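Dear support,

Our group has been running a series of protein-ligand predictions, and this particular one with pyridoxal-5'-phosphate is the one our PI (initials K.S.) wants archived with full inputs and outputs. We had some confusion internally about which version of the output was final, so please treat the block below as the authoritative record. The input we submitted was:
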Amino acid sequence: MSHMFIPGPVDVDPEVLQAQTNPMIPHRSAEFDAFFRGTEAKLKQVFLTETRVFQPPSSGSGMQEAAIRNLVHKDVLSCVNGAFSKRWYDVAVGNGKQADRLDATWGEAITPDMLAKALKNKAYEAVSIVHNETSTGVESPIKELAEVVREVSPETLVLIDAVSSLGGVKVETDAWGLDFVLTSSQKCLALPPGMSFAAVSDRAMKKAESVENRGWYFDLLIMEKHRIKNTTAMTPTMSIIWALDVQLDRMLAEGLENRYARHQAMAHRVQSWAFENGMEPLAKEGYRSPTVSTIKNLRGVDIGALNEFLLTKGMRIANGYGDLKNKTFRIAHMGETQMHHIDELLEAFEAFIKTM
Ligand SMILES: Cc1ncc(COP(=O)(O)O)c(C=O)c1O
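Confirmed final output from the archive:
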């Protein structure tokens, strides 16, 4: 199988893939409930929360929608600095909310100063922030951003998309006071796509009680009613849940701190390599993602031809996103990717540059 350096879906370990072939069982059974309770307990360790983690069948975008539908009557501040934070804004508008945009140029982070200023202008019920913009390789400082929300507007709920960071970068849900942290299965958790996870604070659950038109599929109160009974309202993604259990054991055995350090070391290696080879990351120092490096294509590399060459060696990278296509390229270093994979990729990349 080719090793993929694309930012999701990422390679899944064969043992984890294999777990999906376990037989189906009734989802309304004590056997399933015990299993589901076990995966939630392990997820709480990864989300660094003692409160709750939902495990619904949906991709991450569904949880963006759940956050908006359940936690916002009317006013939300949508921080937009790339494609996925823009999607969250679109979700808010599409659900009839009054969403104000706080924009940063693609390639830049959302900073505490700009957030403080926006929060002083208007009382928002919630603020949505993407921790790691997968489209640009920018990490926003969510601990500091959450601190600013608490100082300037303590009633405002802090909604965080950690789709391309959670499991690869430390996200301290409880300690940082985050009210809603969502992620998808197919990124740093290195599982097949199709499942999402969300840690939700008690005060967010309380807020949901007062919000009308929460729908049904993503109604947090319905999810909670079933979570307490260790199940889901709808049929769960059983095969992925079998895989999830094995993968969480592998992650906890590696050690979360070791896992974060591995991601950071791979990011450092790729980003220093870019400088050494006459290129540079799009993001400024201090905001460079530990899980996906977006590199300015200053050598004019033909990304399509590069990928054809890499595929002959069983590897592939991602082109830049949207308007950044061909102007940048992205090398993901998330999930189960190891430093030796990065070394092999960069060696092949250099060999390609020599042929240009
Ligand atoms: C930061 C971020 N948020 C949200 C999404 C959407 O997630 P999903 O494709 O699981 O719906 C993605 C997908 O790449 C993402 O990178």
